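Protocol step 4 of 5: obtain the predicted structure for the target chain.
Materials: sequence only (see below). No template structures provided, no constraints applied. The aim of this step is simply to have a reference model before the mutagenesis design in step 5. Sequence pasted as it appears in the construct record:
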Amino acid sequence: MPGSDAMQEDLIRWKRFKDGDVAAFESIIRDEFRALFEYGTRFIHDRDTLNDCIYDLFTSLWDRKKFLADTDQIRPYLLKSLRNRLLKEKERANHLTGFDSWQEQTEPEDNAESRIITSETSALRERRISSVLGSLTPRQREIIHLKFFENLSNEQISDVLEISRPAVSNLLSQALRLFRDKWQATISTLFFLLTF
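Step 4 output (structure tokens):
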């Protein structure tokens, strides 16, 4: 869970935004856009539609700022808002992938330098990790993303996913156990194939 200083800073920045401070709003957008985009790519393949959803989220927040509740945890608040918006968008159009067919997205390699840096070993590791993550349920992948990529606490995850804190602990435990078991099986298989 974030420290009380970070929570206090979030609360102050949120209140400034609610009072119409454009600089505070811009800092929220600047600090949170990337996390929202990365989280959103877990649900939606069309990046333009995702950008539109995030833009609409921020526009809606600005328009409704006087009516919003205070929060001392901006990122979890925005992740939950984006998740709800994406679920509504899914109902409206079929541009979203279903949670059942949720696939991890990979960033394309844009330049020669990054292709050189990415070694064959790391590419193999990424394929193994993607394969193991692909074997998890969509909910398990989502909870792993929130815990390890967004660094949210179990309490924050329970708020984002709208499930109880014990359910978060159980889901996370199951996901990590399954990941570990499948990872070890993958390593054992590779070791077996390399020795023969």
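Step 4 remarks: Residues 165-195 form the longest helix (31 residues). Residues 95-111 have pLDDT under 50 and may be disordered.
Proceed to step 5.
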